[in-house]
Automatic annotation (TrEMBL):
One of its GO terms (biological process) is cell division. Pfam families: ABC_tran. The keyword Transmembrane helix does not apply. PROSITE patterns: ABC_TRANSPORTER_1 (PS00211), ABC_TRANSPORTER_2 (PS50893). Keywords: ATP-binding, Cell cycle, Cell division, Nucleotide-binding. The keyword Lipoprotein does not apply. SUPFAM superfamilies: P-loop containing nucleoside triphosphate hydrolases (SSF52540). Residues 2-233 form the ABC transporter domain. SMART domains: AAA. GO terms for molecular function: ATP binding; ATP hydrolysis activity; transmembrane transporter activity. It comes from the Bacteria. GO terms for cellular component: plasma membrane. This is Cell division ATP-binding protein FtsE.
Length: 233
């Protein structure tokens, strides 16, 4: 579960908060769109939820952990339970797709046998196993996007956060990705997707978190089954 109570965020050197007094709850195993115009605070909220930074004020609980009070060791362990798909992919260019995807498990000390099994399982799930030996610079934007998604999924996260994950994808690929998110939701993963793609949101109606100028402009709490219908949109 994700719970924010009067959360604000003011980065160092910034004269005013980029997020102000956010209060919201996302139950475990549900889907949310994260919506709002450019500059509304979507990326800042994702930075909070990926534990890149902590709230300047307010209370944030993530997967049962009070983030504001947590030790560095606790936050390090908590990050392992969160998957993130960045807008700019952040793939290491000198490495193969396989090595990029395998990185989270290797950092945790997983055996090479388990790492290979898990990495190829998620690559096959996303239909990019044939790219395992390729380097990111040789791939299309959509292929790089799917490699970044595979890396986020390999640790079987309890929370998955995605920043504009369909930008580089064709329509059919975007729908397939939504079906993948649906499968994760059905397995109990909380999924939050930031997007400007209004057509995609219309195709896959689900509860939404709407930001405007760093504040919560709306929280559409449709029934939880809305996310579960996204793969049929």
């Amino acid at each position: 579960m994700i719970r924010l109570l009067n959360v604000s965020m003011m980065p160092p050197g910034v004269g005013q908060p980029v997020l102000r007094n956010l209060t919201l709850t996302v139950p475990q195993g549900e889907f949310r769109w994260l919506l709002g115009p450019s500059g509304a605070g979507k990326s800042s909220l994702l930075r909070l939820l990926t534990l890149e930074t902590r709230p300047s004020a307010g209370q944030m609980d993530l997967l049962g952990v009070s983030v504001s009070q947590a030790s560095r060791a606790t936050l390090r362990n908590l990050r392992r339970r969160i998957g993130f798909v960045p807008q700019d992919y952040r793939l290491i260019g000198e490495w193969t797709v396989f090595d990029n995807v395998a990185l989270p498990l290797r950092l945790r000390g997983a055996s090479e046998r388990d790492t290979r099994r898990e990495a190829f399982a998620v690559l096959e799930w996303l239909d990019v196993a044939h790219l395992a030996d390729k380097r990111p610079g040789t791939l299309s934007g959509g292929e790089q996007q799917r490699a970044a998604i595979a890396r986020a999924l390999i640790g079987r996260p309890e929370v998955l956060l995605a920043d504009e994950p369909t930008n580089a994808l064709e329509d059919a690929q975007a729908r397939r990705l939504l079906a993948t998110f649906q499968e994760l939701v059905e397995m109990g993963t909380t999924v939050i997707v930031a997007t400007h793609n209004e057509a995609l949101v219309r195709e896959a109606p689900a509860a939404s978190i709407v930001l405007q100028d760093g504040t919560l402009a709306g929280a559409d709490t449709q029934d939880g089954n809305a996310a579960r219908r996204s793969d049929r949109a």
